[in-house]
Amino acid sequence: MRAAIEAYDAGANVGVISKLHPTRSHSGAAEGGINAALGNAAEDSPETHAFDTVKGSDYLGDQDAIEIFTREAPGDIYQLEHWGAFFSRREDGRLAQRPFGAAGSPRTVYAADITGHVLIQVLYEQLVKRDITVYEEYFAWKLVENDGRCQGVVCWDLLDGGLKTVGGKTVVLATGGQGRIYRTTTNAYACTGDGAAMALYLGVALKDMEFMQFHPTTLYPSGILLTEGCRGEGAYLINSEGERFMKRYAPNAMELASRDVVSRSEQTEIDQGRGINGSIYLDMRHLGAEKIIERLPGSRELAMTFAGVDPIYDPVPVRPGAHYHMGGVQTDNDGATELTGLYAAGEVACVSVHGANRLGGNSLMETITFGRRAGRAAAEWALSHTTIEVPESVEADAERELKAMLGVERGERPWQIRQDLGTSMLENFGVFRRGEQMEKQVEILEELRERYDRGVVIEDKGEVFNSDLTQAIELGNMIDLARCMLQAGVARRESRGAHARPYDFPDRDDEHFMKHSISRWTDGRPELSYDEVRFTKYEPMERKY
Amino acid sequence: MAMQVGLKVWRFNARTGERELQEFEIDAPEEATLLDCLDIVKDRHDGTLAYRKSCRMMICGSCGMRMDGAAVLACKTRMYDVAQSGHVPVISAMGNLPIVKDLVVDMEPFWDKFKSVDPYLRPGYDEPPEGKEHLIRQERMNVVHKEALCINCGCCVSECNAMESDPLFTGPQALAKAFRFVGDPRDGHKIARLEKLNGEHGIWECTRCYFCNERCPKGVDPRDAIAKLGAESMKEGIDRDMGAKHAKWFVVSAKTTGWLRETELVPKTQGVVSAIKQTRFALDLALKGKVPPPFPPHVAKDVREARRLHDLVRDQGRSGYAGIVQGERALARLAHGHAGEETLDEIYARPGAFHRPYLAGEEIPAGADEGMGSRTQADVTPGEQPTQKPEGGA
How far is B379 from B373, CA to CA, in rounded Å? Predict the structure, then answer.
């Protein structure tokens, strides 16, 4: 939506395609906040923000992109505030900022613990104000490539049925993450990596696919997110012995160490038998009823509804869960991909701001800052070029493929494959990764792909709201993205950020792996290569919190 | 651990108009929500079942539907107790919106109404300088805190009685969204917004059944927002609507006699000419003893108390949204027996209670408006207080 608003303001004719109504996208579930060095709560600067982000990325982030990001973030926050965003305030009336993991200063602007919800509302309000066309509940299935550039999207119209092709001189992917590849995830059912898969199938490069962030505090058993803001407000992590175990892993930052560090610490405690039912406890009791109700009402509601625990009186069982995919479609600093006319921004993209590990509060900011930049660049290209040509064969091919999918009468239902995918990925490509487990997972994924290719049965053959069909398409996307993740993961023989191999390659290896992995689709399978990391002034150091 | 869940689902095919109540019997984990159960049905029993879903954590607003006739978010509804009781609930699509298929409704009328209230900030003249935020105290923002929680799920619209009789009624969601901006200190078009909301199908069409408050899964309390819009309108002198006149007469009547004088209510609300047309109806009512004779006015024995209350509210200077919220909340507390013999001051002095609402001219203690949600506007969602830890621990 941020890209659409910017493109509209630049004078372009814009349409938004979304498989959900725009306010239902998963950015709305972001809780804790959005990072910008405003310096309202303490001394801060874009340089400090950049340093924290580079260090958090385990030096895999592209430093020129990060510098643009931290420099432009404050202006974007003020703009959101002017548009009417409902942010929390300090006593002097300025925007409040709270501490977040691995941040050198309290820099996270927030709205209690519904920051994402507030932002998605304000963006939709601005969309309505501009009367921008929204193709609601259009499931984007295939990108149109013609004449060496991207010229539109083939969609399945959920409400009315039928394939609809939307032509465009430029297309900006903003389709979010792919957390649904894992069984335990904070992500919505909609987060199935559709955009990344569409780009992949056109041969566009995906970058750093092995890096999946595990969030340290997701509810047991549902995987629903409890914000880092809980720890930002002072919550403890304790093991079955009641010990604040983070003192053994990150004696300075404690619970507010970087997410990869905290998740690994938790998993170690659980693996060594100091967990509780495969979880550890997030303890907020000492914060007191008033602070919990004022600052973390949403988290309390989630804990009460989904874990049956009121954090005012009892610690909440949490464990690491798949949360955010650092990798994605490779773009330059203006969101442009390898393919002319195709842009990407947000979680689907990999600029890369987050490198091997993202800091809490940086993802919402990335969607805004790089959404704006991608929208601007896409509009400028569109305004200086004239034609759109979608060959008729594109829709005819899609139509044929669709008929074949709906024609399968005998075989497996997609949910069985989806379940096997989620369970095996969690087991073999989770917080800690072992060489032999990853090798096994590569085979499992090939088997899953074969099972999928044999044809899955879509019971709903109808036109109207056929989510049975779209879920089957999503499953195919997820299997292939998982194959890219595994291939890159096996090849990265080091531990960096979210890619942790304590048993065979426990250290970071800057000599061989200070580089981005690149996955490209060739003959029905991913092919791996590498690309340089862009440096400016931040020298790699050991990461300690 | 698994449990057995029975569901009766109203299937609907828009193309043929066929409707069918289909029963399912499934095994589900004990912590399963209604949404989890529907997923099991769709995956393993009938892939053609249609419903919306996404976040499964009560924030995207996709999965609004009805269970046993009342609107719920499927992802928020735990099924354990229902399953244990042996009851088989009936699941159907939301009300007041056309059904597309099974549990999926056409949300277009909903969004059209949303758009009709200009749901975006229209800044006033005092724009802050570039590169700075507006300076606003948290307590001032808290005025629209609850309205900002709305996730557009449509549960309130589904239950709205006024919309059932007038489908064009702007409705609880859109009106709550409208108050989100009427109450925002950064918005510069409050009067214009209120003028529009006082028009046909506007705020005065609400029947005050409170179903929207009851059914909202996020505690937005749309009816309260509508009340606040009414109060703000009257404060700004926008009182031409019969609804406003009606409300005004209530106050005058209660102040002067301590009673509601219904006979005078009609001319005061509808005007003299319209009232004369209803004389026959009034006489019929009088003959059947349904209304007291208009003269002499019946004055309550303890009318002075009513007048004191009126003066008290006036002296507080809390007209508009501030007064109405405080008043409604105080009454709700009394009505639900929360207060007992306690005074409001004592209630607010309870451990864990919210700050007492500050009266005009009163000093606000330092730190009282830190962070969000310190609710200095007496804006307390019922049931939001800490739950009591069960005796003997959990």
Answer: 9
The complex's ipTM? 0.95
The two tokens of residue B24 are 């399912």
Span B59-90, pLDDT tens digits: 999 999 999 999 999 999 999 999 999 999 99
Q: Which of A325, A319, A101 is nearest to A213 (CA)?
A: A325
Three-state SS at A350:
strand
Q: Do A128 and B352 touch (CB under 8 A)?
A: no
Rounded to 5 degrees, what angle do the CA atoms B79, B83, B88 make?
A: 100
Q: List A176's β-bridge partners, or say none.
A: none
Closest-CA residue of chain A to B56: A188
Provide, as residue numbers in chain A, all residues whose Cβ is less than 8 Å from the Cβ of B97.
Answer: none
- Is residue A52 classed exposed, middle or buried when 0-12, 13-18 and 19+ CB atoms within 10 A define those classes? buried
Identify whether A259 is a catalytic site residue: yes
DSSP secondary structure code for residue A276 in this structure: B
**pLDDT tens-digit profile of A275-284?**
999 999 999 9
Ranking A280-289, B48-57, B302-311 by mean pLDDT, the lowest is: B302-311
User: What are the structure tokens assigned to B9, written together?
Assistant: 């689902």
- How far are the Cα atoms of A235, A250, A255, A269, B189 from residue A244, in angstroms, in the given order? 10, 11, 9, 11, 52
Across the interface, whether the CB atoms of A302 and B58 are under 8 A apart is answered yes
Residue A204 sits at the vertex; the CA angle it makes with A199 and A205, to the nearest 5 degrees, is 115
What's this model's pTM, rounded to 2 decimal places?
0.90
Beta strands in A285-440 (DSSP E): 316-325, 328-330, 342-344, 349-350
Residue B36 tokens read as: 């989890």
User: Positive or negative CA dihedral for B106, B108, B110, B111?
Assistant: positive
Cα–Cα dist A261/A498, whole Å: 8
Total CB pairs under 8 A between chain A and B: 197
The model's pLDDT over A305-351, given as tens digits with 9 standing for 90+, comes to 999 999 999 999 999 999 999 999 999 999 999 999 999 999 999 99
Residue A169: CB partners within 8 Å, gap ≥ 6?
Answer: A151, A341, A381, A382, A385, A386, A387, A388
Helix (H) or strand (E) holding A312, with range, is none
Return the bridge partners of A163, or none: A156
From CA A188, how far away is CA A190, in angstroms rounded? 5
Does residue B151 surpass a pLDDT of 70? Answer: yes
